Amino acid sequence: MKNLNQLLLNFEHKQNFKDEDFYVSKSNYFAFNLISSWPKWEKNFLNICGDNFSGKSHLSDIFLKKFKGIRINAHAFRNENLHEIKVYENIILENFDQNIDEILIYSLFNTIDQDNKYLIINSTIPINEINFKLNDLKSRTKNCLFAKIEKPDDELMFALILKSFSDRQVLVDKKLIDFIIKRIDRSYSKIFEFIYKIDEISLKKKKSIDFKTIKEVLKA
């Protein structure tokens, strides 16, 4: 993993989702550790749950880079996908919620079981808390490993804010980041929303980010 000083050197225009750009803290350690320890799992089903922007898809990228497999959006899962996955050992379902074809997903669970494959399911809430209509699917969703990505701790918030500015080629003093952490909502989506707004204001005013700009965005 990159440390914070190394992250400062990463000045690409777009966000980077490489393995080394994933910052591990207490908030996401369990999920990261499970992903890294494949195939030494107790079960063939893993549900990674966490808020939007918490890093679920980034973990999927890391997994696929190391161990190969196929990624499918749960909302777009179709009959032909049941045939498509036959050649893969690892399947990742993104954006899993109650708005899925329950019969098809139940068939997927059976295929995973029968063919001894592995299924990683990314969702915002644990899938065993979703009230599915199909009782067989509801029962299946309880037979998973569960890894919850918690709300970001201070260490992870610092890394996320630093990296977000770095991706935009913006250097920010550590004191400013500490100031932000103490005042911003402990939410992944709020962090990225804040970064976007402060970067936008800074570009419009053609001035570097300072305490005044930060306070202006926080009040808004």
- Helical segment tally? 10
Mean pLDDT: 88
Low-confidence stretches: 1-17
Helix proportion: 40-55%
By helix and strand content, what is the structural category?
A: alpha/beta
Coarse morphology:
elongated
Radius of gyration based on Cα positions: 20 Å
Tell me what the structure shows.
- 45% of the residues lie in helices and 11% in strands.
- The protein has ten helices and five strands.
- It is of the alpha/beta class.
- It has a five-stranded parallel β-sheet with strand order 2-3-4-1-5, sandwiched between helices.
- Mean pLDDT is 88; it is low at 1-17.
- The chain has helices at residues 4-7, 29-36, 56-67, 79-84, 102-114, 135-140, 154-167, 174-181, 188-205, 211-219, and strands spanning 45-49, 70-73, 90-94, 118-123, 145-148.
- The chain is elongated, with a radius of gyration of 20 Å.
Q: Secondary-structure map with pairings?
A:
Elements: H1 4-7, H2 29-36, E1 45-49, H3 56-67, E2 70-73, H4 79-84, E3 90-94, H5 102-114, E4 118-123, H6 135-140, E5 145-148, H7 154-167, H8 174-181, H9 188-205, H10 211-219
Parallel strand pairs: 1-4, 1-5, 2-3, 3-4
Helix pairs in contact: 2-3, 7-9, 9-10
Entry keywords:
220 residues, five-stranded parallel β-sheet, elongated, 45% helix, alpha/beta
Q: Short description, anyone?
A:
By secondary structure, this protein is of the alpha/beta class. It has ten helices and five strands, in the order ααβαβαβαβαβαααα.
